[in-house]
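Researcher: I'd like a structural prediction for the single chain below. Treat it as a standalone chain; there are no partners to consider.
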Amino acid sequence: MMLLFLSSAIMLSVLAGWGKILESFLGSLSQGISGNILNGIIGLSLIWTVLSFFIPINIYVEIPFVLAGVFLFFKNKLYLEFYHFSKKDSFLIGGISVVILYSSSFYPYILDHFGYYVPSIKWLTEYGLVKGIANLDLTLGQMSVWHIFQAGFSGFSDPFLRMNAVLLIIYTIYIFENKSWVQLSFIPVFLLFSQSPSPDLPVITLSLIILNELITGNKNIRLLFAYAVFIFSIKPTMIWLPLLVFLSSVLIFKPHYKHTIFGILILLLFFIKNIWTFGYPVFPVATADFGFSWKPNPEVLKISSQYAIQKTYDMQYPYEEIQKFSLYDAVRNWFTLEGIKSKINILFILCLTVFSVFAFIKKKKILTLICISLLIKSMLVLAFSAQYRFFIDAFFVIFFVLFIHLSKKKALLFFLLLSLLVMGILSLPNSIRQYIPSFRPGNFMTGFKKEQLYKPSTYHYNQFETFQTGNLKFNISKDYPFNFDTPLPAISSGYVIDYIHSGIFPQYIDKKNIKKGFIWKQLTPKEKRKIKDVIHTIKNSDQ
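Model: Treating it as a single chain, here is the predicted structure.
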């Protein structure tokens, strides 16, 4: 916690310093220090995304940006902004920040932390964006903008990858500056995302900020649309937000093409990034095929698509059986899954129904547009892969709109009670394992360790085996499916098996320069015989 506090202080000052400079170009989303910090987030994220095409986002990038940000913070006396809070609010912000730092100091437990978040950041810090990286490990084709942003601070400012904890402190400051008290109720739930650089947390918190700005009358459509597209670029399942801002600009505010230019530029950068790493404009959808040589193998994409369909039903049905479902079977089975996920699915549909009725009764244009945007997003998610993690943001949006006038006193009480519950679960995870055994992440929570009071808990494994196929020499984590600290280039064992079954394997475009990227090629009979050793090793490890 102590090191995390120092890390947070550094990053807040850096973001505020850069945000103040960017304010002259972008304007300000919100008054106060939170507006500067938010500008710093979007500004540095975009700058580092562009740089990552050419160079690694490592400590040599971090040092000048951090020094410049701290210099600008003190030069512009931005620390004085913190004195604008009353003593009572300062005490509350400090107390909430302590809760955030404590909760974020636990060991990471989200599996994507080990299979997606950390490997992405590792590649970005060592090589930057690598062309065709999806051919090596399809998951890495996402390379979220949030992970590029996190990579920029991962050298010495935030080596523990706890940027999400810093974001929650920023979110808290925004809430107090804008008196949006209902949002205090969400922080306890967000604490569950604070141990990992999960992109779910930034897209939900930032979308709620944009939503609050829209509802309270912010007319800076240019910046609102840019932020909305930026959030979409972090996670495309947030498509409802740019759609909402665009519809609002057309139907409520006076539309002008200049309002969309900045947002469109961000969208183009997002498409280019995805094409570079994945071969198509939007991961993981293989549409708009421009024929790039580094696009993934069609059979691998097919396997991934089948897996996404199985995930819709929590892997409780084989793909072949799902294909035989009638429409009635598909809906019924989705609502009757074993465990907690069926309850979440039912609650999701009920919330959408209640919110649709609420919007119809109120007959306010902004509420109608929010409802339409959420319904469009929900239909897309349900058609693609109806996993609860793709529509969890809808719960927060609906709750926010329905209880937007919640008082400060009630919101603080709700925050206190729910925070105690969440911290109790993190500290003593046996309770959630006992009462909600179908909540699988609970099985990976380790509970409180006294060492985390000094520094956040992190895992170290670094056991791997090395193989070579064609010109590719690669590493696979030993006796563990993920490669969070395996030396690069590393491939998840699951993808190795998929490649072998598809009769292909990734190869360097130029074995002397990893930065030039990866393609796939058909395995020769000799390579197929040799690769059996890899399969044998993986299967033995699984046993």
